[in-house]
Amino acid sequence: MTTTTLTSYRVAVREALREAMHRDERVFLMGEDVGAYGGSFGVSLGLLEELGPERVRDTPLSEAAFVGAGIGAAIGGMRPVVEVMTVNFSLLALDQILNNAATLLHMSGGQVNVPLVVRMTTGGGRQLAAQHSHSLEGWYAAIPGLTVLAPATVADARGMLWPALLDPDPVLIFEHGGLYNVEEPLADDAGPVDITRAAVRRPGTDVTLIAYGGTLSVALAAADLLADDGVDAEVVDLRVLRPLDDETVVGSVRRTHRAVVVDEGWRTGSLAAEVSARITEQAFYDLDAPVQRVCSVEVPMPYARDLEQAALPQPGRVVDAVRAVVG
Amino acid sequence: MLREMLRVRRFEERCVELYSAQRIRGFMHLYVGEEAVAVGVCDALDPQDAVVSTYREHGHALARGMPMESLMAEMFGKVTGCSRGRGGSMHLFDVARRFYGGNAIVGGGLPLAVGLALADRMRGQTRVTTCFFGDGAVAEGVFHESMNLAALWRLPVLFVCENNLYAMGTALARHQAQTDLALRAAGYGMVSWAVDGMDVDAVASAARRAVALVRSGTGPCFLEMRTYRFRAHSMYDSDRYRDKAEVEAWKQRDPLPALALRLRADGSLDDETWQAMEAEVAREVDAAVEAAEAAPTEPVEDLTRFVRSESAPS
């Protein structure tokens, strides 16, 4: 019988890194403060002592150079895992991610693979204000050539890294900053997970709530509130933001006939917009109501707690959106 | 090396004709005048060394040993091109020869070279990664980040700055606070010096010294090649930003006749050899054009190939 241990999301990511570095000597971790400091979110604590400074590399504050060097090292036969402190800082490396990592394979006619994994923190809710709180993973999910993952559970945080490292092409993993302290029971023999499919986290019949990363808990909380009112919500966790698993999403909507997408990105041009469009394209005649979106309010994220909470998707707003479609 | 420079020169001259005839499209940046740099540097490299280049890379690609046919076919957008017609003039790749582009973002190849060198170091290889870039790249933030990282980690990178005095149409003195570029690199604690980029012997000997130094494990090296492009930045450029007299003065230092003259003087080149070389290169160019004309294009059904690898993750 499989035993489980209550494990935090932070420890799950750390164990995935530790396992990967022990399994494959080509795997190494680099980024700002990943070594001596133990990771700005404590993810890599202890790994420097265990694996040494060659495998756990502190970098200068040079996002373009160390992400680009990760791309070069991947081309050169290594399996780098690059940690970028937050998605906001990743914009300094956007040139390397878009113009090189995502592009080299195609531009070279299939010659240059980039087996790179980039991990970064995303999301708000911790009163870190506008330059540390945005959810820009939807932008990356718009880029052909990338795979974009968003682990929302401890099991996914544990299991997504290894298959990402086996992928011959670049994979970005977005870890929501609000999840690191979340603890869930994790099987002691937890291994890799499927990084191609979305997952139904809560079955239901009346409406499909589609969420990912930091908004999965928001959708699940909303589903609990709705259950009290006799509305049976299904919750789908996208897990993979690119390529999107239309089959799971559209399959669920065909059963429930209603959909609400919950996305911490800004509404305009959001991933939620893409999901909504796909549902409309593929399941329009199955819908009993227009697809609704609950996104972040279109402001740079404020510091003050009440303002920040008002900007972010909350269970109450999801419940209101569901009421509008369930009638 | 004379023959290599001649191949680059004649290849590009034919490219100009084909561009005017609209057989080659897109942006095309010519290397005419700078041939001594690519040829001299590549002469100092071993086959296992890597090269990272820019959008002005025809010379680097040929000097690195890429077949002229695969280059010409790429210019034509044909499936037999080195990048299967997906790259064009600015994105030539040949992984078998460790030639990693063809990067059209100014400075975009610098961190890639740092990473390739890092991989070599971590895998215990004694290979050198050579990174070509222009004086314009020195103004990019990623230049400074890459210099710092390479020097900090003592990585085996040979940085070759082709200082042709113009970043597109902006003269060096109008875009750099410090125009002594070798001095800039020295600020990162790496060995650096300036070389006459119009003299292929000087380039080759500097490159050999630098490659030996880098291979010995002391860290990166920086060579500032003082060179000049005789033609405009690209085929779209009307070249209004510089004096005709300045161009003419530099043409007096054309590296190709300069080397031929030296070889004649020491008796290792005569008219017959020179003419035979010209004829052989002309035949190579003709053959490349003929093959490119005859080659098929990639079927449009294959448009979305190579966005992701065909071997899916397990």
Mind explaining what this structure looks like?
The complex is a heterodimer of chains A (327) and B (314). With 327 residues, chain A is α/β, with parallel strands linked by helices. In chain A, 37% of the residues lie in helices and 22% in strands. Chain A has helices spanning 9-23, 47-51, 63-75, 87-90, 94-101, 104-107, 137-140, 154-159, 161-166, 216-228, 246-256, 271-283, 305-311, 315-326; strands at residues 4-8, 27-31, 56-58, 79-86, 117-122, 147-149, 171-176, 183-187, 199-202, 207-211, 233-237, 240-242, 259-266, 292-296. In chain A, α10 links the parallel β10 (207-211) and β11 (233-237). Chain A is globular and about 60 Å long. Chain B is of the alpha/beta class. Chain B has twelve helices and eight strands. Chain B has helices at residues 2-20, 35-43, 58-63, 68-75, 110-122, 141-152, 172-175, 181-186, 200-215, 244-251, 255-265, 271-294; strands at residues 50-54, 99-103, 129-134, 157-163, 166-167, 170-171, 191-196, 221-226. In chain B, strands 2-1-3-4-8-7 form a six-stranded parallel β-sheet, with helices on both faces. A two-stranded antiparallel ribbon of chain B has the order 5-6. The radius of gyration of chain B is 19 Å and the shape is globular. Classes of the chains: A alpha/beta (327), B alpha/beta (314). The interface between A and B is large, with 46 and 48 residues.
Which keywords apply here?
heterodimer, A: 327 residues, alpha/beta, seven-stranded mixed β-sheet, five-stranded mixed β-sheet, 14 strands, 37% helix, B: alpha/beta, two-stranded antiparallel sheet, 8 strands, globular
What order do the helices and strands of chain B follow? Answer: HHEHHEHEHEEEHHEHEHHH
Structural class of chain A: alpha/beta
Overall pLDDT metric of chain B = 96
Helix content of chain A: 25-40%
Number of helices of chain A: 14
Strand count, sense and closure of the main sheet of chain B? 6 strands, parallel
* Main sheet record of chain A: 7 strands, mixed
In the sheet with the most strands of chain A, the strands line up as 3-2-4-5-7-6-12
Residues in helix, % of chain B: 40-55%
- Rough outline of chain B: globular
Could you tell me the number of beta strands of chain B? 8
The span between the termini of chain A is: 45 Å
Oligomer: heterodimer
Largest interface, with counts of residues having CB < 8 Å to the other chain, equals: A-B, 46 and 48 residues
Rounded radius of gyration of chain B (Å)? 19 Å
Give the number of helices of chain B.
Answer: 12
Strand content of chain A: 15-25%
Distance between the ends of chain B: 48 Å
Compute the CA-based radius of gyration of chain A.
Answer: 20 Å
Low-confidence stretches of chain B: none
